[in-house]
């Protein structure tokens, strides 16, 4: 199960994405492959600093925070610590 799938199992992450009008299909977890390998090596409760990129009609939003996870129970929680917005360039 991917990190994104684990996060989508929780309502708080879904509410955060809804608050910023981000479609679930437009979410990308940076370095997800590296984190997945770490998950397999350390399935117990742990935490990692991560960046989640989301896109909406206004641009790109990068969410920075801590991912708390427990693979044995298939749980993941994102604790947001900040974000930055980047507007999409206008095509002329």
Using DSSP, what is the number of strands?
4
Secondary-structure-derived class: alpha+beta
Query: Helix amount, in percent?
Result: 25-40%
Q: Globular, elongated, flat, extended or rod-shaped: what is the shape?
A: elongated
Mean pLDDT: 87
Order of SSEs = HHEHEEE
With strands numbered from the N-terminus, the spatial order across the biggest sheet is 1-2-3-4
Quaternary: single chain
| Rg calculated over all Cα atoms | 14 Å
Question: Which features would summarize this protein structure in a list?
Answer:
single chain; 92 residues; alpha+beta; four-stranded antiparallel sheet; 27% helix
What would your notes on this structure say?
The protein is an alpha+beta fold and about 90 residues long. The chain contains three helices and four strands, in the order ααβαβββ. Strands 1-2-3-4 form a four-stranded antiparallel β-sheet. The longest helix has 10 residues. The N and C termini lie far apart (about 40 Å). The model has no long low-confidence stretch (mean pLDDT about 85).
At a glance:
The protein is an alpha+beta fold and about 90 residues long. The chain has three helices and four strands; from the N terminus they run ααβαβββ. Strand 2 (about 45-55) and strand 3 form a beta hairpin.
Which helices and strands appear, and what pairs or packs with what?
Elements: H1 3-8, H2 11-19, E1 27-29, H3 32-41, E2 46-56, E3 59-70, E4 75-87
Antiparallel strand pairs: 1-2, 2-3, 3-4
